[in-house]
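Q: What would this chain look like folded?
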Amino acid sequence: MTDTTTIDSATFRRVLGHYPTGVCVVTAADPRGAPIGMAIGSFTSVSLEPPLVAFFPDKRSSSWPRIEETGKFCVNVLASDQQELCRQFAMRGGDKFAGVSHRLSTNGSPILDDVIAWIDCDLYAVHEAGDHFIALGVVVELEVHRPGGPLLFLQGAYGEFNLLG
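A: My prediction, written as structure tokens:
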């Protein structure tokens, strides 16, 4: 294994900040039906067989342990016009669902209204990875709700994808 202790965290963040990430909200519902949600900027497809996706919750997250406990989650892909929704779910504490309309997936997780797409999953595995976890989900249902440009995060700012040609 390579020794990475010489990499300054500020430099690491600055350099990798030049690569855009899509912004999603991961949701679930606790056993009492109370909705849980967290904004993430690290979501990816992993496998076609079985259909797997992954995201990377911070170990300091207060929402992630509650989502993990449910054993299922829904990834809501935010549209470029949903920056305020992202900020609401990125806050620590408080009622993240205040004023947010949604419906429940067949798995019982909240699907936020007007998102580009949603991917409903059963939790497949969780692995430790430095100061984050790798959460893998097996996809049980998914749909494009409103085709359009996704919300992107790049160099500390939100933006959108502009198709050329």
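The chain has one domain: 21-154.
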